[in-house]
């Protein structure tokens, strides 16, 4: 009992700090628009995160090398899809939609995890969980359609909001797959998937260069790269993995509900974005649906 309480006392601040950092990630990505292209930002971010993690992870990488070799395809998928694919879509989305939209749409991620667990792992679901999932999807649909659901029926979507659907699918798949994470030290795990994310993002950056759409970073762009690599990248991802280990994925996943709250407040305060009524309604639907699904699962 006392040991469980001490684990929770360490996990809770780690997970709150994680969600605050991920809320800031959307704000930083919005600041980066025009100062560095989104796919180059993704590539440099994960390269920086890997180099920063390497000195601390090196002893554990040597220790876990047999596990890394044995599970290489899974580790490559974690980095290339969960990290690189998610961030490439998110940073690209911020070129076409608001940071408020992006952070509220991220709240649909638990719904993706829920659906994947049901479809792939055949997890049992209750009527309350299903209702919560439907309410959450309705909230995300309200944001994607800009408050006009008729646009959604006509597939008249903002390009940025459509990209965010790709982003949350990538990270939702990564999070659902964490339950089969190889038995590795968390430092070697974050270093390996940062490296595979760096490699996986290279074709994206190369495509930007080949299509002459690349924007080389100026001082602001480099600042965003450094911040994104260290804070929402290396530190927050490590804290989230560690929090999962301490209290389990189901309890840790509840903290993801704080991302849209932090992100919305930060977007209004730091970016001066306007909070519309449909944003408030959508946020209420998303968080209410997740809460209902969580209660139905206990």
What does it look like?
The chain has one domain. Helix content is 82%, strand content 0%. The chain is globular. Helix 2 packs parallel to helix 10. The protein is built from 13 helices and no strands. The mean pLDDT is 82. The chain is mainly alpha-helical and 298 residues long.
The total number of structural domains is: 1
DSSP helix fraction: over 70%
Radius of gyration over all CA atoms, rounded: 19 Å
Mean of the pLDDT scores? 82
Q: Quick one: overall form?
A: globular
Low-confidence region ranges: none
**What's the main sheet like?**
none
How far is the first residue's CA from the last residue's CA? 20 Å
Features of the shown structure:
about 0% strand; Membrane protein; globular; AA-Vitamin_Transporters; mainly alpha; about 300 residues; transmembrane; EamA_dom
Task: Chart the SSEs and their pairings.
Blueprint: H1 2-32, H2 38-70, H3 72-93, H4 99-106, H5 109-121, H6 127-144, H7 149-153, H8 159-177, H9 186-210, H10 219-247, H11 249-253, H12 258-271, H13 277-297
InterPro entries: AA-Vitamin_Transporters, EamA_dom, EmrE-like
Main location: membrane
Subcellular location: Membrane
Quick summary:
With 298 residues, the chain is mostly helical.
């Amino acid at each position: 009992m006392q040991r469980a309480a001490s684990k929770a006392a360490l996990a809770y601040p780690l997970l709150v700090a994680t969600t605050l950092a991920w809320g800031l990630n959307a704000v930083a990505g919005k600041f980066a628009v025009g100062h560095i292209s989104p796919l180059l930002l993704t590539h440099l971010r994960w390269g920086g995160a890997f180099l920063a993690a390497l000195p601390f992870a090196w002893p554990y990488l040597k220790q876990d090398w047999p596990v890394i070799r044995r599970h290489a395809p899974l580790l490559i998928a974690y980095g290339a899809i969960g990290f690189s694919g998610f961030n490439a879509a998110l940073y690209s989305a911020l070129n076409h939609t608001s940071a408020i939209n992006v952070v509220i749409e991220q709240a649909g991620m638990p719904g993706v995890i829920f659906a994947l667990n049901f479809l792939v792992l055949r997890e049992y679901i209750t009527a309350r969980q299903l209702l919560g999932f439907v309410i959450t999807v309705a909230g995300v649909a309200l944001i994607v359609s800009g408050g006009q659901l008729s646009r959604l029926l006509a597939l008249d979507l903002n390009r940025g909001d459509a990209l965010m659907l790709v982003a949350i699918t990538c990270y939702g798949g990564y999070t659902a797959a964490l339950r089969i994470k190889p038995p590795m030290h968390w430092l070697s795990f974050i270093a390996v998937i940062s490296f595979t994310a760096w490699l996986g993002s290279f074709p994206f950056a190369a495509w930007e260069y080949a299509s002459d759409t690349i924007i080389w970073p100026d001082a602001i762009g480099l600042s965003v790269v450094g911040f994104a690599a260290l804070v929402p990248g290396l530190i927050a991802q490590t804290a989230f993995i560690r929090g999962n280990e301490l209290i389990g994925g189901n309890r840790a996943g509840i903290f993801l509900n704080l991302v849209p709250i932090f992100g919305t407040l930060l977007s209004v305060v730091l970016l001066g974005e306007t909070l519309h009524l449909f944003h408030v309604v959508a946020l209420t639907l998303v968080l209410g649906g997740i809460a209902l699904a969580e209660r139905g699962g206990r």
